[in-house]
Structure formats: C-alpha cells, structure tokens
Write a structure and sequence with these properties.
Blueprint (H helix, E strand, L loop, with lengths): L2 E6 L11 H4 L4 H14 L3 E6 L3 H11 L6 E5 L8 H10 L3 E5 L21 E4 L4 H15 L5 H4 L4
Parallel strand pairs: 1-2, 1-3, 3-4, 4-5
Helix pairs in contact: 2-5, 3-4
Bound molecules: ligand CA2.
The site of ligand CA2 has 16 residues, from loops.
C-alpha cells in the first residue's frame, strides 16, 4: 500500500463547466473519484487536491516530501509555464512525479510548449483528456511496483 497524491493547478476546478473543446466534459470531482477507485483497486491510497494558489501547491509538494507520499501526479495548469517555485519544490523533495495535461500543449499557443517541470518528471502525458490522469496513475502504480522492497514488504507486509 502506497500513498499517491494528485495535484490540480489553477482553474481546473472549472472542469466540465467551461471550454469543453479543450478540457472535455468531466468534472474534477468525477475524475478524482475514478482515480481514487483505480488506485484502491491496486491496493493503494490516492488523495487529490486542487488549488488556484501557487503557494498551496508548493506547500502540498513540500508536505508530500515528509508525510510518506510515494508518488505525485500533477496537472500544474498555467503554473506549468511559469512556476520556478513549483519546480524548486519538486527538485527539493525529490519525489517521483508525472506531469499531466488534458489538452495537447504542443498543439496550442507557443507559450504552452515550455514546461518548468517536465525535465524533472518521470514522464509527461498531454492531449489525452481525463484518460491521461488514469494512465499516469497506472504508470505510478507500475513505478511503485518496481521499487526495491523495504524490510516490511519483504516480510510480507504492504
Ligand atoms: O491542458 C491542460 O491540462 C493544461 O494544463 C490546462 C491549463 C493550461 O494553462 C495549460 O496550458 C494546459 C488551463 C486549465 C484551465 O482549466 C479550465 C477548465 C475548464 C474551463 C476553463 C479552464
């Protein structure tokens, strides 16, 4: 059993209500529910947090570095393209993470092509809609299964 944290950046609380051509029809609550069920089906615990505030996302990453969180899936939204603070937080905690975007950031305005996080991430999924989050969680689960078992796991505990 491992803890996976899903972070959603600014304006993603509007999902399902505006701009379906870019971001689809699912609400964030529906996406988070599916992700928690997916993780639980694989014996893991998944928590989600959305914030419109950069410092809250930075603090969530810092907390994750200390509370036993094993993996982060993040859609940093607009902070992808601007946040050195978020980058520094990921670099400081050193937790593995996957960057997810609902839309294909390479098929939109040029400023969306630059990510301050991508080179630190295990991987980036972009353009697959909400399915991208599910694929990221499955990849996280796979990543966690490859870890060297700790003493507890070797004795048959999760
Ligand atoms: O494609 C993505 O997931 C993005 O991270 C979404 C960000 C955008 O700034 C990135 O370049 C790509 C924007 C999130 C805004 O979310 C909304 C959701 C519904 C309605 C309006 C905005």
């Amino acid at each position: 059993m491992a803890d996976i944290l899903v972070l959603h950046g600014p304006n993603l609380n509007l999902l399902g209500r505006r701009e379906p051509q870019h971001y689809g029809h699912d609400t964030l609550a529906a996406i988070d529910q599916r992700l928690a069920a997916l993780a639980a089906a694989h014996g893991h615990r998944l928590r989600s947090l959305q914030s419109n505030a950069e410092h809250e996302l930075v603090e969530a990453v810092q907390r994750a570095g200390e509370d036993g969180t094993a993996f982060i899936v993040i859609n940093p939204a607009a902070y992808t393209h601007s946040s050195i603070a978020l980058r520094d937080a990921f670099a400081a905690v050193g937790l593995p993470f996957i960057e997810v975007h609902l839309s294909n950031i390479h098929a939109r305005e040029p400023f969306r092509r630059r990510s301050y996080l991508a080179d630190l991430a295990c991987g980036v999924i972009s353009g697959l809609g909400p399915k991208g989050y599910e694929l990221a969680v499955l990849a996280a689960i796979d990543h966690l299964a490859q870890r060297t078992p700790d003493r507890g796991a070797r004795r048959g505990h999760s």
